[in-house]
């Protein structure tokens, strides 16, 4: 179980997740809060997901080895990895089909580069890659939210899911972190540790940053305007 929050604009992309792995659908066999679910992809951005962790990890490792990652190549890799993993675990077929993988990348153009965040999910999209629209906050919810859609409606009514970037990155980050904090506080499947992968152009160069910490201090830093000081550069 997990939560993933994605956001993309003309200037940057954000992929945000937690660090908890649960054992059993309802964590009846416990959990571990020290898993790296956010993966840095060479020559791309960040990848994570919700659903069957071993499948997500396998796909992300395969994707990290891909030197040229066109949309068609990624879609084919997703389908191939999915079928291989389902063949090994026939009793988990439905869980594989409902798994969602999220990743970010940048198309480098001559005059302008474009940021992307995409979703892969067999159940709803087949083998097709679906991209997030600019400024729309997309949340992949943990099971207990999907089992009670009133919780989803409550989140999306109280938090604006369309958040146009106004130049204040800290303010936007604070908004996303507050959503994360509420879901974390109300889901046994989500840790308080928030792991954030960012891609952004600064001074005509593309940078990847990571920010990983308990969500409450991160919100405080965003409020104080010091969250950018916490960013770590990732090569």
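Q: What amino acid sequence fits the structure above?
A:
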């Amino acid at each position: 179980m997990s939560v993933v929050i994605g956001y993309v604009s003309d200037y940057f992309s954000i992929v945000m997740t937690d660090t908890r792995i649960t054992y059993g659908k309802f964590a009846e066999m416990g959990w571990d809060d020290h898993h790296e679910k956010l993966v840095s992809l060479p020559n791309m951005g960040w990848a994570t997901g919700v659903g069957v962790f071993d499948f997500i990890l396998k796909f992300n490792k395969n994707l990290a080895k891909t030197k040229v990652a066109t949309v068609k190549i990624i879609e084919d890799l997703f389908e191939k990895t999915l079928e291989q993993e389902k063949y090994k675990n026939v009793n988990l077929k439905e869980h594989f089909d409902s798994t969602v993988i999220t990743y970010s990348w940048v198309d480098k153009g001559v005059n302008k580069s474009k940021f992307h965040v995409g979703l892969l999910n067999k159940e709803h999209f087949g083998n097709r890659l679906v991209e997030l629209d600019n400024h729309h906050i997309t949340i992949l919810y943990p099971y207990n939210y999907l089992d009670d859609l009133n919780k989803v409606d409550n989140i999306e009514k109280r938090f604006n899911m369309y958040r146009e970037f106004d130049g204040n990155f800290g303010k936007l980050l604070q908004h996303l972190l507050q959503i994360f904090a509420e879901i974390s506080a109300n889901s046994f499947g989500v840790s308080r540790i928030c792991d954030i992968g960012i891609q952004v152009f600064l001074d005509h160069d593309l940078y990847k940053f990571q920010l990983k910490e308990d969500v409450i201090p991160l919100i405080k830093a965003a409020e104080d305007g010091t969250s950018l000081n916490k960013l770590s550069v990732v090569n």
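Q: And what stands out in the fold?
A: The longest helix spans residues 71-88.
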